[in-house]
Amino acid sequence: MCLAVPARILDIGPTSEANPLRMGRVDFGGVVKEVCLEYVPDAAAGDYVIVHVGFAISRLDEAEARRTLDLWSEISRVDPSRDGAEVD
Question: Is a pLDDT exceeding 90 seen at residue 17?
Answer without folding.
Answer: yes
